[in-house]
Amino acid sequence: MSAEQIFDVLIVGAGHAGAQTAITLRSLGFEGTIALVGDEPELPYERPPLSKEYLSGEKPFERIQLRPASYWAEKNLVLIQGHRVVSVHSANHEVTLSNGATLSYRSLVWAAGGDPRKLSCPGAGLQGVHGVRNRADVDAIMSALPNVDRVVVVGGGYIGLEAAAVLSKLDKQVVLLEALPRVLARVAGEALSNFFADEHRAHGIDLRTDAAVVELTGDERVTGVVLGSGETIAADMVIVGIGILPSVQPLFDAGASGTNGVLVDAQCRTSLPDIFAIGDCAAHPNDFADGDVIRLESVQNANDMAAVAAKAICGQEAVYKATPWFWSNQYDLKLQTVGLSTGHDETVMRGDPDSRSFSVIYLKAGKVIALDCVNNVRDYSHGRRLVELGVSVDATHLADTSRMLKEWTVTEPLA
Ligand code: FAD
Predict the structure, then answer these.
(1) CB within 6 Å of ligand 1 — which residues?
(2) Looking at the whole model, is its pTM more than 0.70?
(3) Is residue 192 a contact partner of residue 360, using CB atoms and an 8 Å limit?
């Protein structure tokens, strides 16, 4: 890489969104020069297995790479690995890397994801305290695990719960701490939260809600977690899964609009000329949130935004209006969600949670806005259409498992 090299498309961040942008550009026939700058040393890889099959050892790293190693050179995609973009000079169409090199671009795609939020309490920097965002984080956890019996997981979101499930399978003693009154509080209704809390407890996890961490104790290495109640929980390892902060400071320094993430329009364009932002770091108006500006942290969103930005760069018409979906695997449970349940005013339980195959349907003003489906692929695929159409369906019909959800996508049920 020579200083002041110019690329037709420069992509910052070689994660899901960045890699997918490059892949889509080539599949659309874009022949210009493309470079991906990523601060991780690895080839682009899937992040979801980090808290699932990679952590458990079921999938080696080679099996979670987004493309085989040969792909990038074959497609003439330049990978600049292990370097961070530290500043953006939008007037000159240039970025500066952590090694001082300058790269020029015609279009810049910012796909830098987020940095894991850290605990702010005393002891947060002790050895044995881990985040779960990238391969290096999980490799550090895996290499320490043989000498660890007691793990405290801080955070009852998807990542904390998935990590807890894997650790319990690995026969570790796990305490999971959630500061709010229930797990998954930000993303799901109470019935689903209660179901997953019960499952984890049944698998031996000591799951505690309303449990705020005020201090981590230990000399160099963590040995305990102090709660607001004054109780200290012994720990050989602490895993922190309390969300991310969008990785966007260089864009803000360059004058981009936004607060929680960089603000983009329906083509994923930021307020800066020829700069797009996509994936976890992009705040966008979303139809499924009544047009509110939100960030989505999902592979679906990363891939769909990448497709929009790639098409826009190719001069094709593209508008981001993808249906949000997400999945989570815990034990033998596969959760699939579609839509956004935020703001729901009614929930319908479809099926019996004790059967471990059921769905929770969320409505707002009578319309179906989201589903959480546990071990229930059929409801997920049929219910998706209800969400996309925003269909109004009577709650008793939705709860009736003798009828398939797809029957309610038309005004009158099929005979
Ligand atoms: P990322 O994939 O995070 O990629 C961003 C990349 O940019 C990173 O490599 C980062 O290091 C790099 N970077 C940051 N700043 C700079 C810079 N200044 N210069 C250069 N490079 C930079 N989603 C699901 O849909 N289902 C799941 O089951 C699921 N499970 C998950 C489990 C875990 C453990 C994690 C961490 C995430 C999970 N997600 C899941 C979320 C999903 O992985 C993310 O939404 C997705 O990776 C977002 O893609 P992205 O490209 O925006 O960000």
Answers:
(1) 12-18, 37-40, 47-48, 50-51, 84-85, 111-113, 132-134, 159, 247, 279-280, 297-300, 302, 326-328
(2) yes
(3) yes
